């Protein structure tokens, strides 16, 4: 059985992707952070196997931004593929 890919955030959060993905089918995704009249654009991007991985990565970024920081209340993380399609829009939910 093939090993399933694992995404790991800078904070050590690990997510095992639910399906095996062929190494040859990868796409560049960008993760922009936007809210309260500000936008922080991801100019580098991240190569990921598919849109599901991009959605998961966006939710990890949103969770990290929410950790103990009220600075990002009302923001969201926008995942966009290399051709400009919006893949996901994840809200940054700061615990009250």
Could you explain how this protein is built, in words?
Pfam families: DUF6894. This is DUF6894 domain-containing protein. Residues 28-92 form the DUF6894 domain. With 96 residues, this protein is an alpha+beta fold. It has one domain. The protein has one helix and seven strands. It has one helix at 51-66; strands at residues 6-8, 14-16, 27-35, 38-40, 46-48, 76-81, 86-91. The relative contact order is 0.23. The mean pLDDT is 84.
Give a quick precis of the structure.
The protein has 96 residues and is α+β, with helices and mostly antiparallel strands. The protein has one helix and seven strands.
Give the termini distance in whole angstroms.
Answer: 43 Å
Structural class: alpha+beta
Percentage beta strand: 25-35%
Total beta strands: 7
Rg from alpha-carbon coordinates:
14 Å
Secondary-structure element order, as H and E? EEEEEHEE
Largest sheet: 5 strands, antiparallel
Number of domains: 1
Q: Looking at the structure, what is the overall shape?
A: globular
Mean pLDDT: 84
Put simply, the count of helices is 1
Organism: Bradyrhizobium rifense
Domain DUF6894: 28-92
Pfam family, one: DUF6894
Protein name: DUF6894 domain-containing protein
Helix/strand layout:
Layout: E1 6-8, E2 14-16, E3 27-35, E4 38-40, E5 46-48, H1 51-66, E6 76-81, E7 86-91
Antiparallel strand pairs: 1-2, 3-4, 3-5, 3-6, 6-7
Top keywords for this entry?
96 residues; alpha+beta; two-stranded antiparallel ribbon; 17% helix; globular; DUF6894 domain-containing protein; DUF6894
């Amino acid at each position: 059985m093939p090993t399933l890919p694992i995404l790991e955030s800078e904070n050590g959060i690990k997510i095992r992707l639910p399906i095996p993905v062929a190494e040859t089918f990868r796409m560049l995704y960008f993760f922009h952070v936007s809210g309260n009249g500000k936008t922080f654009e991801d100019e580098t991007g991240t190569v990921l196997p598919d849109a599901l991985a991009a959605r998961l990565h966006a939710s990890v970024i949103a969770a990290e931004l929410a950790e103990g920081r009220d600075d990002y209340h009302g923001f969201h993380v926008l995942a966009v593929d290399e051709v400009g399609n919006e893949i996901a829009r994840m809200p940054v939910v700061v615990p009250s």
